[in-house]
Amino acid sequence: EPEVTQTPSHQVTQMGQEVILRCVPISNHLYFYWYRQILGQKVEFLVSFYNNEISEKSEIFDDQFSVERPDGSNFTLKIRSTKLEDSAMYFCASSYSLGQPQHFGDGTRLSIL
Amino acid sequence: AQKVTQAQTEISVVEKEDVTLDCVYETRDTTYYLFWYKQPPSGELVFLIRRNSFDEQNEISGRYSWNFQKSTSSFNFTITASQVVDSAVYFCALSEVFYGQNFVFGPGTRLSVLP
């Protein structure tokens, strides 16, 4: 069964550094998403992406965040100038259409030191 | 605004007991989807079920069953004859069609099934 893959599984970065989290969505899916889960808390929506542009974003997704689909397969989340509070699990998800189940990757655990 | 409430933060049961996880939602949309996801200790999110707002039929899948009641805006999840492997955090989620694309997750219920 096709799945969403995320790399790396764990990223450790110094505060203030830039980090890029990578995702390969399921190949025929059209909608892409990033979510964040701070340890022990709920999963929070960051951004959705469709037709090569951001379609929706939350208040968490401020100017330090950006997303890109640099080619036909990858979907990336960039965090500029990371802060301690950016430490969390970041999940990528994709779906074929609105309302369809979003298939999640296994997540990237980001630790900011 | 869309909102999902899971009032039970943590539940502990003994193996073979039945357990029901509650989910109450709020939405402005007339067309929406409800989901349950399981997050085992390994951390990944596993899709369990999707329900659309026009389908109020209850669903059973093995030991899992779901009770969708639009009148009370609830979408409860029951595990029958629970097993230790059911221990996980369970998230209920809502996706509106007209007002937004993103999922809103509830805070989750941590289920511990003791042997």
Categorize the overall geometry of chain A: globular
The biggest sheet of chain B, with number of strands, parallel, antiparallel or mixed sense and barrel status, is: 6 strands, mixed
- Profile the largest sheet of chain A: 7 strands, mixed
Greatest interface: A-B, 27 and 24 residues
Estimated structural class of chain B: mainly beta
Q: Fraction of residues of chain A in helices?
A: under 10%
Which structural class do you get from the secondary structure elements of chain A? mainly beta
Characteristics:
heterodimer, A: 113 residues, mainly beta, 7-stranded mixed beta sheet, 4-stranded antiparallel beta sheet, 0% helix, globular, B: 115 residues, 6-stranded mixed beta sheet
Helices and strands in order:
The complex is a heterodimer of chains A (113) and B (115).
Chain A: E1 5-7, E2 10-13, E3 19-24, E4 31-37, E5 43-50, E6 53-57, E7 65-68, E8 75-79, E9 88-95, E10 103-104, E11 108-112
Parallel strand pairs in A: 2-11
Antiparallel strand pairs in A: 1-3, 3-8, 4-5, 4-9, 5-6, 7-8, 9-10, 9-11
Chain B: E1 3-5, E2 10-14, E3 19-21, E4 24-26, E5 32-39, E6 46-52, E7 59-61, E8 64-69, E9 74-79, E10 88-96, E11 103-105, E12 109-114
Parallel strand pairs in B: 2-12
Antiparallel strand pairs in B: 1-4, 3-9, 5-6, 5-10, 7-8, 8-9, 10-11, 10-12
Walk me through the structure:
- The complex is a heterodimer of chains A (113) and B (115).
- Chain A has strands at residues 5-7, 10-13, 19-24, 31-37, 43-50, 53-57, 65-68, 75-79, 88-95, 103-104, 108-112.
- By secondary structure, chain A is an all-beta fold.
- In chain A, the strands form two sheets. In chain A, strands 2, 4, 5, 6, 9, 10 and 11 form a seven-stranded mixed β-sheet that branches. In chain A, strands 1-3-8-7 form a four-stranded antiparallel β-sheet, with no helix packed on it.
- Chain A is globular.
- Chain B contains no helices and twelve strands.
- Chain B has strands at 3-5, 10-14, 19-21, 24-26, 32-39, 46-52, 59-61, 64-69, 74-79, 88-96, 103-105, 109-114.
- In chain B, the strands form three sheets. In chain B, strands 2, 5, 6, 10, 11 and 12 form a six-stranded mixed β-sheet that branches.
- In chain B, β7 and β8 form a beta hairpin.
- The chains are: A mainly beta (113), B mainly beta (115).
- Chains A and B meet through β4, β5, β9 and β10 of A and β5, β6, β10 and β11 of B.
